[in-house]
Design a protein that fits this description.
seven-stranded antiparallel sheet, alpha+beta, binds 2-acetamido-2-deoxy-beta-D-glucopyranose, 13 helices, eleven-stranded antiparallel sheet, 792 residues
Length: 792
C-alpha cells in the first residue's frame, strides 16, 4: 500500500482525537442507506443487513462515508482482488471496468511493445511505473521492483474468463498469460527448475537492508518469498485449466504437473517446524525469516496449500497470544485479534534490519501495533481467514470470525471508514484505531473481498473449467442464504441454498420480551408437515455469556409430552440458533418453552403476527415470537438402534464413542436414559482426530433431557475423518446405552478412557442442501460436501 498519504495525514493531525458516538445496535442490524437492491440475503436478517452494508461500503465503494470513490484498485497489485470482487456480477459495470484495466492498461515487458529494465514477461509494479512508487530520497530515487503482482495478473485473467467465458477475451489474454508464466515465472524466476519461484534481483535477496518485494512495501522480504509463491501456486492451476479450455492438453498437463508437485516444495521451503507455521521468506543464504505473518499463512491455506494438520497448528497459533504491541490504540495488547475485525498482520515486530523506512513519518518508524504492516490489521485478510477455516475447519468457526468483523464495523459510527477528503479529516475510528493502524477504506479497495467470502465460501459459488459451481457450507446459524445479481456467461441469475424446507416461521420482530429469572416464555405452533429442528432469534444486549433452557413439547390430546431439550450457553447476540431432534410428525400442537435464563437476554417478538400463539408465564400475549420450524434434509451415515446395557455417567466421568466417517456430517445423536428422572443432563463434546491428537470442536449442554431419547447435537458440517463423541459432566442420573455384542469397525466405545466391548447406540447424519436457481428452472438437492454445477 502507498503510505505517503497517510504520512501527510499524521503530520497534519499529529494530535489524537476520537469521535465518541454511541449507536444503538438493533436486531435488524445496520441496513444500507442506498436505494438499490442488495445482492445478499439470508434467513438471519441482522446478518444479511450487516453484510450488505459491508458490501456497499467496501465492495461497491458506494458509501459516501468512504472517501474511496472507485470500485477497484485498477493497478498492478490489485488485479486479482478486483477480479475477486466483481468477476461474478454485471452490477454497476464494475467487472467491465476491471477487465478493461487488465486488458488495456496493465504494462508487461515484451507485450504490446512495452519494454523496461526487467526481462520479458515482467508485470510492472505500479500502473505506468515499472517499479513501486517508492523512488523517494530514502531510496536515492530508485523504486523497488515488486513480484506479487506477477502471478496475480494470471489469476485475474482466469477469474474473469471462467465467469464470462468470453472467447475474444481469452484469445487475447491467454497468450499474454503464457508469456508471463513461461518467460518470467517459469524462466526468469526458475519455477521450471524444481524449486519455488525465486526473485532474481540482488536488491531483493531477502537479506538485511534489502528492498521490499511485495504490496507489504515496508518489509524487506525477498529471494524465496512465500507470499509471491502462494499466488504462483494458484497461477499454475489456473494456467492448466485455461489451456484445457483452449484445447492445448499438452500445455495443460505441463502446468498441472508443476502444480501437483508444488505443495511439497512450498512446504519444504517455508514451513517452520519450530513454530509450526509458514515463514515469510527464505533469503539468498538459506535463512528462513518468520515474524509471524498471519496473512501469508491464511492465504496459503485458502489457496489449498498445506493440510489439516498444518491448518490446525496455524489456527492454534492465531488463537493464542502474540508479542505485546508497543503502539497504537491497543498498545500492550497480546491479543492476536487486538483490532477485533481480524488478526494483526504479523505477530512479531519486524526487526529494524528488515524494515524499509521509505514512507516512515519524519519522526521515524512507528511502533509495533500502530501500522498495518507491523502489528496492525487489514480488512481484506478476513476473506482468507474465513476461506481457510471453511476449507480446513468448519463453517461455524468461520462464521464466528465473520460476525466479529461485521459487529466491529457496525459498532463504529462511520463503519470503520476513514476520510481524508473532509474537514476535519477522519483519521481515527470511534475506538481510537488510526488510519495507519487498520487498513479499511482508502487506499484499500481490496477490503471488499471480505464480503465475497459469503459468496465463494458459505454459498460455495465459484466458476471454473467445470462450470458455475454451488457447493454450500452454511453455518448452523443460517437455515438458508441467497445471492442475486449473479452473472454467468452473460446471463443474470439468483442462487438460493437452504439446508432443508421451512415448515413454519415467524422471522421478524417489532419488539422484545425480556427473559428474566423465573420467567417462562413459550411459543405454540402447529406445523403442517414433519420437522426436525427449530430456531429462535434472541438479543443479549451485547453480552456473550447469557443463555437459557429450550424445551419442546407436543400436545398429546391430554398432556404436554416433552420431545427434546437443550441448554443454550454463551448465546451470540441477535443470531438465530437452532435446536435439532429426531423427525417429529406435523399436524399437532407443539410448544417451545424458554426458561432457566442466565445473564441478560430477550426474545424477539412480532406483536402483530398471528402465527401460533405466544405466552408469558402461561398467559397468552399478542403476537408471535421469532421462530423457524425446519425440516432439514438428513441422511443417516451411521445409525445404531440396538442396546443391551446402560453405562451410567454418574459412575464414570466420561463416556465416549469414536467413529470414522467418509462424508461430512452435521448432526450426532446419543441414545440416553435418565432412570425416569426429569431433570438430568450432561455436556456433549465432539473431538476430531488431527495428527494423532483429539482436537476439541464442539461443546453443547443438554439439561432436563427426555428419557430413552436420541439427544442430538447439531453444528456446521464437519469434514470426513475420525472423531470422538463424548458425554461428560452429569447432572442427576444419565446413561448412554451400549450393545455389548454390537460390532462397529469404525471405532470403539470407551468408559473413562478404557475401551469396552461392543458399541454405543449413536447416530451420525450427513446434511443436504436444496439449491434453487429460478431463472434456470433449477430446484435440486445435493448432499453436503457435494457440488452442483451449471454449464450455462
Ligand atoms: C518516480 O516516481 C514518480 C511517481 O511517484 C514517477 O513519476 C517517476 O517517473 C519515477 N521515476 C523513476 C525513475 O521511476
Ligand atoms: C500447445 O502448446 C505447445 C507449446 O506452446 C505447442 O507446441 C503446441 O503446438 C500446442 N498444441 C496445440 C494443439 O495447440
Ligand atoms: C522458525 O522460526 C523461529 C523463530 O523465528 C526461528 O528461531 C527458527 O530458526 C525457525 N526455524 C527454521 C527451520 O528456520
Ligand atoms: C501435512 O503436512 C506436513 C508437512 O509437510 C506433513 O508432515 C504431514 O504428514 C501432513 N499431514 C497429512 C495428514 O498429510
Ligand atoms: C471446479 O470446482 C468444483 C467445486 O470446487 C470442483 O468440484 C471441480 O472439481 C472443479 N473443476 C475443476 C476442473 O477443477
Ligand atoms: C428486535 O429485537 C432486538 C433484540 O434482538 C432489539 O434490539 C430490537 O430493538 C427489536 N426491534 C424492535 C423494533 O423492537
Amino acid at each position: 500500500m502507498e503510505n505517503k498519504r497517510m504520512r501527510t495525514t499524521l503530520r497534519k493531525f499529529g494530535t489524537f482525537y476520537s469521535i465518541c458516538v454511541s449507536i444503538l445496535v438493533g436486531a435488524s442490524g445496520v441496513a444500507p442507506t442506498h436505494a438499490q437492491t442488495y445482492p445478499f440475503s439470508a434467513s438471519d436478517v441482522y446478518f444479511q443487513n450487516n453484510l450488505n452494508t459491508f458490501w456497499y461500503t467496501y465492495g461497491e465503494n458506494e458509501n459516501s462515508g468512504d472517501s474511496y470513490t472507485s470500485c477497484c484498485g485498477l493497478n498492478s497489485v490489485w488485479t486479482e482482488w478486483d477480479a475477486m470482487k466483481f468477476d461474478w456480477t454485471a452490477y454497476g459495470g464494475y467487472r467491465t471496468t476491471e477487465i478493461n484495466y487488465l486488458e488495456n492498461s496493465q504494462k508487461i515487458n515484451g507485450i504490446n511493445g512495452v519494454t523496461g529494465v526487467q526481462p520479458t514477461g515482467y508485470v510492472w509494479s505500479w500502473g505506468a511505473l515499472e517499479t513501486w512508487p517508492d523512488n523517494n530520497s530514502y531510496h536515492a530515487g530508485l523504486g523497488s521492483y515488486h513480484f506479487d503482482q506477477i502471478p496475480r495478473y494470471i489469476n485475474a485473467i482466469y477469474d474473469n474468463y471462467m465467469w464470462t467465458r468470453d472467447s475474444l477475451f481469452i484469445s487475447t489474454m491467454l497468450p499474454r498469460a503464457e508469456v508471463v508464466m513461461d518467460s518470467y515465472l517459469l524462466g526468469t524466476m526458475q519455477g521450471n527448475s524444481g524449486t519455488v519461484v525465486i526473485i532474481p534481483l540482488a536488491s531483493n535477496d531477502g537479506t538485511a537492508g534489502k528492498r521490499p518485494s511485495t504490496y507489504m512495501d515496508q518489509v524487506g522480504s525477498g529471494y524465496k518469498d512465500a507470499w509471491v509463491n502462494t499466488g504462483f501456486y494458484t497461477a499454475l492451476r489456473d494456467m492448466a485449466e485455461m489451456e484445457t479450455a483452449n484445447g492445448n492438453t499438452t500445455k495443460a498437463a505441463t502446468y498441472q504437473s508443476l502444480a501437483n508437485t508444488f505443495p511439497s516444495l512450498f512446504e519444504s521451503t517455508f514451513w517452520n517446524s519450530t513454530n509450526h507455521r509458514y515463514g515469510g521468506w527464505r533469503d539468498t543464504s538459506g535463512v528462513l525469516h518468520d515474524y509471524g505473518y498471519t496473512y501469508i499463512n491464511l492465504e496459503a491455506l485458502a489457496r489449498g496449500l498445506g493440510n489439516a494438520t498444518d491448518a490446525n497448528y496455524i489456527f492454534g497459533w492465531l488463537n493464542g497470544p502474540a508479542d505485546a504491541t508497543s503502539g497504537g490504540a491497543h498498545a500492550g495488547s497480546t491479543s492476536m485479534n487486538q483490532d477485533v475485525f481480524g488478526p494483526r498482520t504479523n505477530s512479531i515486530s519486524t526487526p529494524n534490519s528488515y524494515w524499509d523506512g521509505w514512507s516512515d513519518p519524519s519522526s521515524g518508524r512507528l511502533p509495533y501495533g500502530s501500522l498495518v504492516e507491523d502489528g496492525g490489521s487489514v480488512l481484506w485478510e478476513v476473506y482468507y481467514d474465513v476461506m481457510a477455516h471453511l476449507r480446513y475447519d468448519n463453517a461455524d468457526d468461520a462464521m464466528a470470525i465473520y460476525q466479529a468483523m461485521l459487529l466491529r464495523m457496525i459498532s463504529d459510527s462511520h463503519l470503520l471508514t476513514f476520510n481524508q477528503a473532509i474537514t476535519p479529516q477522519r483519521v481515527y475510528d470511534d475506538f481510537g484505531d488510526s488510519i495507519t493502524e487498520i487498513g479499511t477504506s482508502t487506499p484499500y479497495p481490496e477490503s471488499g473481498i471480505a464480503g465475497i467470502a459469503f459468496l465463494n465460501g458459505f454459498l460455495g459459488v465459484t466458476a471454473n473449467l467445470s462450470g458455475l459451481n454451488v457447493s454450500p457450507n452454511l453455518p448452523s446459524s443460517l437455515f438458508s442464504a441467497q445471492v442475486t445479481q449473479v452473472n454467468y456467461k452473460g446471463t443474470d441469475r439468483t442462487i438460493e441454498v437452504s439446508r432443508g424446507t421451512t415448515v413454519l416461521e415467524q422471522p421478524s420482530n417489532n419488539s422484545v420480551v425480556p427473559l428474566t429469572s423465573g420467567t417462562t416464555l413459550s411459543q405454540q405452533f402447529t406445523p403442517s408437515g414433519t420437522f426436525n429442528e427449530i430456531g429462535v432469534d434472541m438479543g443479549t444486549y451485547l453480552t456473550t455469556d447469557s443463555g437459557f433452557l429450550a424445551q419442546l413439547y407436543q400436545w398429546s390430546g391430554s398432556a404436554w409430552v416433552k420431545v427434546a431439550s437443550r441448554t443454550f450457553v454463551n448465546y451470540p447476540n441477535n443470531q438465530w440458533q437452532y435446536m435439532a431432534f429426531p423427525v417429529q410428525p406435523g399436524g399437532s400442537i407443539y410448544s417451545l418453552n424458554i426458561s432457566n435464563v442466565s445473564g441478560n437476554i430477550a426474545w424477539d417478538i412480532n406483536t402483530t403476527s398471528s402465527i401460533g400463539g405466544a405466552y408469558q408465564n402461561g398467559a397468552s400475549i399478542a403476537g408471535a415470537y421469532t421462530f423457524r420450524v425446519g425440516d432439514a434434509g438428513e441422511t443417516a451415515a451411521i445409525r445404531d438402534t440396538t442396546q443391551n446395557t446402560a453405562d451410567s455417567l454418574s459412575a464414570n466421568f466420561e463416556l465416549a464413542q469414536t467413529f470414522t466417517i467418509g462424508v461430512p456430517f452435521n448432526r450426532a445423536s446419543m441414545h440416553v436414559g435418565t432412570y425416569v428422572t426429569q431433570n438430568s443432563g450432561f455436556t456433549a463434546n465432539l473431538y476430531q482426530s488431527i495428527n494423532g491428537d483429539w482436537v476439541h470442536k464442539v461443546s453443547q449442554q443438554f439439561d432436563a433431557v427426555v428419557d430413552n431419547s436420541d439427544v442430538t447435537m447439531n453444528f456446521a458440517s464437519m469434514p470426513a475423518g475420525t472423531y470422538k463423541l463424548e458425554m461428560t459432566k452429569d447432572v442427576g442420573s444419565i446413561a448412554w446405552y451400549r450393545d455389548t455384542t454390537g460390532t462397529y469397525s469404525g471405532g470403539s466405545a470407551i468408559n473413562n478412557g478404557v475401551t469396552v466391548p461392543g458399541r454405543r447406540r449413536f447416530s451420525v447424519y450427513q446434511g443436504q442442501y436444496n439449491i434453487q436457481v429460478p431463472e434456470k428452472d433449477i430446484n435440486t438437492t445435493i448432499n453436503a460436501g457435494d457440488t452442483y454445477t451449471m454449464t450455462n
